Amino acid sequence: MKKILLVVFLLVSCTSWSAEFKAGIASRVITPPLPFWLTGFASRTKPATEVLHDLWAKALVIEENRNSRIVIVTTDLLGLSHEVSEEIAGRVIRKYGLNRSQLLLSSSHTHSGPVVWPSLSMIFDFNNEDQKVVAGYARKLTDDIVSVIDSAMSHLAPVKVWSGHGSADFAMNRRQLTENGIINGKNPEGPVDHDVPVLKITTPGGELKAVLFGYACHNTTIQGNSYLINGDYAGFAQLDLQKTYPGATAMFFMGCGADQNPQPRGTAALAMQHGKSLSEAVQKVLSGDLHLVHPPIRTDFTTADLEFRPFELNSFQKDMLSTDIYVQRRAKIMLEAYNKGWDVGHFRYPIQVARFNNDLTLLAMSDEVVVDYSLNIKKEFNNENLLVAAYCTELMCYIPTLRILKEGGYEADSSMIYYGLPGPFTNNAEENILNAIRRIMKHVGAKPSKKGR
Description:
By secondary structure, the protein is α/β, with parallel strands linked by helices.
């Protein structure tokens, strides 16, 4: 009798353990109709007319119950506009009763993907027909992402969740110091983050259903002279993983790679090479020792208030006479805002976190975040199994640290021209962001190490 009870107990315990989470996984093609304008490089002069491979939106829902769940969406896009992000969030929150912190939207930052209007609209001067096409795509993209979340929500099944880390080495810091200041070049001595965090989703019996992985490197192996739609190295890595594991869905999130470039770079062949390298790093993790992740899932979402340096009206009046079309366009936006009485001195910066018990913490930062942030946050919270993602929620500008603001260069200053923003942030931007991160990390139970600070 005791043996029977022991067997029953073990069976019940095993069943309960294996069904701690349910997950739903779905994918949808979001390749635009051709011809279509690509984004990310201002040098392009015509729309794309060919597809190297399709682009995808993918959704992964992981839940214990309605109060303990996260919806993660990855997209093969440069980034989402504020408009698209807000519309998706509003619709999904109303439909499923989510908190805003339970929806994580991310983009791979491929520069061989479509315009997501009006993100980075400064680099375009569309005619009426082109404007209608890109605006129509943004509306359809919104519907498609909501649809892929619907599909994932409707296919929940018991799963196990595992976490591990690997490494890839093709990212190189691009902030090169020259006699004329910082340029976008090669800085092999500069800071990098070669971590490849991996989240493995399996059935209770061990069948691989999905893998979520990341890397901190600009998704720009292929340059502005290419007019082929594709997901660059991140797209090729996902394709290779799905070929290696038939029936599984591979999902990529970009880390804090705003000042990191793939090396070498310049061709589709090199993008495939880097994608294969990243895929192999993920495969090594999947075949090794991973840590089981348990519920509950605790989430939080906040914004940090950032300020731009004082608005110089006279400088923008001078810029209206510039021969640089992008400088002139930025000046026009700033002067129109000034004359309409709009406040362009502040920036609302979204940050969110999802913590799985004490096993795993996923920190998601918006916009183009430089690598210092992930390195410093991991150091401060070095007791946490921490995954740091950037390019989440929306894409509005670069997010530099104080070090980079003081050094200057593209990430701190001139990139703001192409994003149509006033100029560099004030020197307290990094501290405001880190304080906001500390608040939400504390709220979900993550604690900094005493040595980390």
